Amino acid sequence: MDEIISLEKTYNNGNPFPKALRELLYLAGKRCYVLAYYSDSQAEMQEMAREDLADYELSIPRPFYVVDVYNAHDQFLFIYLDEGKDNPTLYEAVFEGDPRGWVHSLDCSLAGFIGSQLSSYLRGENPF
After folding, report:
1. In CATH terms, is domain 2-122 a member of 3.40.1580?
2. Could you read off the pLDDT of 56-76 as tens digits, one per residue?
3. In what order do the strands lie in the sheet with 75-80?
4. Which class for 81: exposed (0-12), middle (13-18), buried (19 or more C-beta within 10 A)?
5. Which residues contact 17 (CB under 8 A, 6 or more apart)?
6. Residues 82-97: pLDDT tens digits?
7. pTM > 0.85: yes or no
């Protein structure tokens, strides 16, 4: 819980994360290889994603939290922390080459995405 509170202080001005994110982080624990990409911690993954944005001269002006980083650091999934929802909408940032724009909604909630990934895994499919 201490790590989650620290992340909330850093990335959400001390405000609690949306319930779905808090639950995900709590259940994943401190060392979840799926949620930390190649990072040693959630905080490191957040910083890496923000550095990648800066490398592409891009920014996201609203408070956000990166849930997954993939494709050699030029894409990530994230939620906005200021939506005021317990189960926020999931967004994708693709730094170049996506006709939908570099930030777009995936038209699903964070919990919905997690559920679909778990269902894939339980069917024996690769959820990634």
Report:
1. yes
2. 899 999 999 999 888 777 899
3. 64-70, 75-80, 89-94, 103-109
4. buried
5. 4, 7, 8, 25, 65, 81
6. 999 999 999 999 988 7
7. yes
